[in-house]
Request: fold
Amino acid sequence: MSLTFDVLGRDGTARRGRIKTAHGTIETPAFMPVGTAGTVKAMMPASVATTGAEIVLGNTFHLMLRPGAERVATLGGLHKFMNWPGPILTDSGGFQVMSLSDLRKITEEGVAFRSHIDGARLTLTPERSIEIQHLLDADITMSFDECTTWPVAEDAAAQSMRLSMRWAEMGKRAFTERPGYGLFGIVQGSIFPKLRAESVKALADIGFDGYAVGGLAVGEGQDRMFETLDFTLPQMPQDRPRYLMGVGRPADIVGAVKRGIDMFDCVMPTRAGRTAQAFTRRGELNLRNARHRDDPRPIDEHCDCPACHDHSRAYLHHLIRSEEILGAMLLTWHNLHYYQDIMRGLRGAIEQGALGDWTAAFEKEQELGDVPPL
Ligand SMILES: [Zn+2]
Reply:
């Protein structure tokens, strides 16, 4: 039953694993591109797969409002609707609904809010969130939770976390177990060790197919995020996948893999691709910058994505300055390809017991900065 997870190898606290779902296998550590509204923005599904991504993320909140979960179900589920045959993880809608600070009201039962699309009054409860994710046919369903704000006092963080734990239990009861499908719980508790420990225990007592660390990458900074992982991860179940939500920049991912995280999602590579930012082995660069105007070289001569293989910095700069759609498409492709390159590198390094050397080389290259101008 459920989905399976095997730890194939370890290097220190880092894990090399494999998740088997109803729609295919995910090699971990894995990065999941974000497909908010049933599309990874500016990418064709087959192109997303070409980068090496094996699973994409869909957003419950956006899809419930438009086109509607029942409609997606009638049309054969999200895999068929968006033509992504591989695994899909859906978030619970909690993060987006909470961010509608003027438009929502939180109660024990869930969150009442107004649609930003047509103003309709709606309610999202833990049970409805699970039902929507079922209708979407998500391989991995996330528990409905409150993403604790930052900064937050310990007593407020405790109240928020305990509400999420009650919602997690309600969601678990509403979840229909099927072979190859799983439900993940989300550890909350902000940066407070006692609260994180309490949250891990509450979730482990309920029992989930995987465990996410939520409430990080909300402004606390990399040091506090790593500290929180350092005291939280050793307490989490060893035999289940661990997912760090909403993270992050390449260095965040490398540091979190080292600490034992198996899965990531972040809008950063796709969003940056639409704002002229490229992530590379040698740090970040902005193709809008005039220094690229006459540069015939690729973004990265070692990258074999279409943006780097077929096009110059000068051309990409021109596309961006001209606000041509192809500029966003090529940069998104490059960024996703680079993120998957990092994941391939991390998986290989863990397999070979060489994560320390790999990480040192990664950091050294990042510190070099972009190639000097011609
Ligand atoms: Zn590239």
In short: The first strand starts at residue 4 and ends at 11. The chain has a mean pLDDT of 97.
